[in-house]
Amino acid sequence: MRAFQSNEEFFQTVEALIASLELAGNQRAADEVRDGYRCLNGLTDGSALFLESLERVQSTQSDGLSREDRQTLERLRAAVQRAVYRR
Q: Which of 19, 55, 80, 81 lies at a 20 to 30 A Cα distance from 48?
């Protein structure tokens, strides 16, 4: 899985995922991702909250998502997990 080349690419990917989820009628998933995204504040706490949101969508709503959205969600989750647990 390819890493994000910049924060800007990461943020654009999050926003594109939210838009894609909304367009596909997956409002609950879009709202969950958006709520977690709003927690990002440059601190580990905010990233951990965003990670929890991404994991919640994966565990409770991924069956209703397109393959592409599931892949994007996993890519984001992996990147945020690396940020939270880096040593």
A: 19
